[in-house]
Automatic annotation (TrEMBL):
<feature type="region of interest" description="Disordered">
    <location>
        <begin position="1"/>
        <end position="21"/>
    </location>
</feature>
<keyword id="KW-0808">Transferase</keyword>
<protein>
    <submittedName>
        <fullName>Phosphinothricin acetyltransferase</fullName>
    </submittedName>
</protein>
<dbReference type="InterPro" id="IPR000182">
    <property type="entry name" value="GNAT_dom"/>
</dbReference>
<feature type="domain" description="N-acetyltransferase">
    <location>
        <begin position="20"/>
        <end position="184"/>
    </location>
</feature>
<feature type="compositionally biased region" description="Basic and acidic residues">
    <location>
        <begin position="1"/>
        <end position="11"/>
    </location>
</feature>
<dbReference type="GO" id="GO:0016747">
    <property type="term" value="F:acyltransferase activity, transferring groups other than amino-acyl groups"/>
</dbReference>
<dbReference type="InterPro" id="IPR016181">
    <property type="entry name" value="Acyl_CoA_acyltransferase"/>
</dbReference>
<dbReference type="Pfam" id="PF00583">
    <property type="entry name" value="Acetyltransf_1"/>
</dbReference>
Length: 186
């Protein structure tokens, strides 16, 4: 956000490794994004959603993320099938939070553990910092895979708090850990 209050878009370069490509998401990728997320909605407590959002939600999320100048990346396999995604959005809607973003990252369960999370989240954080974000926040459910927390911590996030008992899904009472990373000086 440099000296003004408007974020600027900085698309990351294409990255390839192990047959996967990380690139900016397009409208054609959104059904794949929806499918990756729908798995976690239906099968886990990593997200507090109980009904998977439809494609229109993802179109709006993608458009608003890009309109705000933030990155939205996907990982695709050799057949161009979406196997993961990451983006950031405003932490809170009030103007004083305009330099703080919240991360969102999901990798398809069948390819998790191959380093895609890092290859998605690292350039998203770099792009967010280049676009003016000063702080990044991750809100991680106690029902999420421990790998999610380890990924964030390996990228410099630190635990700053826990909200206890704030969610109930599938009969399980859930906490959320709040992690924070300083992206750049004010």
């Amino acid at each position: 956000m440099d000296t003004d209050d408007t974020p600027h878009t900085h698309d990351p370069a294409l990255q390839t490794d192990d047959g996967y490509v990380v690139r900016p998401a397009t409208g054609d990728d959104l059904p794949g994004v929806a499918a990756v997320y729908a798995h976690y909605v239906a099968e886990s407590t990593a997200t507090f959603e109980e009904v998977a959002p439809g494609i229109e939600f993802w179109r709006e999320r993608h458009a608003s993320t890009l309109a705000q100048g933030w990155p939205f990346l996907v990982a695709v396999d050799a057949d161009d099938v979406v196997v993961g995604y990451a983006y950031v959005g405003w932490w809170r809607p009030r103007p004083a939070y305009r330099f703080t973003v919240e991360t969102s990252i999901y990798v398809a369960a069948d390819v998790a553990g191959h380093g895609l999370g890092r290859r998605l989240l690292e350039p998203v954080l770099d792009s967010a910092a280049a676009a003016g974000a000063r702080e990044a926040v991750a809100v991680i459910s106690s029902g999420a895979s421990p790998a999610s927390r380890r990924l964030h911590e390996s990228l410099g996030f630190e635990a700053v708090g826990v909200l206890t008992g704030v969610g109930v899904k599938r009969g399980e009472v859930l906490d959320t850990a709040i992690l924070q990373k300083h992206l750049r000086a004010p």
